[in-house]
Design a protein that fits this description.
217 residues; TIM Barrel; 17% strand; globular; binds erythose-4-phosphate
């Protein structure tokens, strides 16, 4: 399973990248706004900086909702760097745009996916990635992981090439479960990635080893 970091914060991207396990970055308009980035020039420069920091797929989300405008915006985003993946919402014009990008060699990430039906449409349109929002599904009282399993089953059965990118991750356990359910990629906050490191027996074991090492060093 590939690891993406789900943030537009450069310090967090740097920290995750330095771990050596990072395969890419996902952003969205809310994450960009959180960093105080304003205006299309600043947005484009921010994406460029991220692309220069991380050697992997960088999802940049369109804010247009009309087919022609999504295509125009997506073309501009894709021109920033070869690693840019254009993130397109799961709406009617979005599906049309996904197909246009597929036919024109631009890689895509279909976002805001909450059902198997939407995941089938994204795959039919040739999306590179599809992003089911696990945490938001769980927040509404449904089971996000069940959707990952259902999607993995359908994609395998139908031979779809679209990669399942588990998004809206809230914890280290979500990452483990997404891997178990067959997600190809997990995009996670830094905190959840670092959460994978934690186990009290590791801390206790290390403390004992370091204490015993003093006896012979
Ligand atoms: C990533 O591609 C998604 O936009 C993101 O994971 C959404 O996460 P949230 O539900 O925590 O906002």
């Amino acid at each position: 399973m590939k690891f993406f970091i789900d943030t537009a914060n450069l310090a967090q991207i740097k920290e995750a990248n330095e771990l050596g396990i990072l395969d890419g970055v996902t952003t969205n308009p809310s994450l960009m706004a959180k960093e105080g980035i304003k205006g299309s020039d600043a947005v484009f420069n921010h994406y460029k900086t991220i692309c220069e920091m991380v050697d992997g797929d960088i999802s940049a989300e369109v804010i247009s909702t009309d087919f022609k405008e999504i295509v125009e915006e997506g073309k501009k985003l894709a021109a920033i760097h070869p690693n840019i993946v254009v993130k397109v919402p799961m709406i009617k014009d979005g599906v049309k745009a996904l197909k246009w990008f597929t036919d024109n060699g631009i890689r895509t990430n279909c976002t805001l996916v909450f059902s198997a039906g939407q995941a089938i449409l994204a795959a039919k349109a040739g999306a590179t990635y599809v992003s089911p929002f696990i945490g938001r599904i769980d927040d509404s009282g449904w089971d996000g992981m069940e959707l990952i399993g259902q999607m993995a089953h359908i994609y395998q059965l139908q031979g779809y090439k679209t990669e399942i990118l588990a998004a809206s991750i809230r914890s280290a356990l979500h990452i483990v479960k997404a891997a178990e359910m067959g997600a190809d990629v997990c995009t996670c906050p830094l905190e959840s990635i670092l959460g994978l490191l934690k186990h009290p027996l590791t801390d206790l074991g290390l403390a004992k080893f370091l204490e015993d090492a003093k006896k012979f060093s």
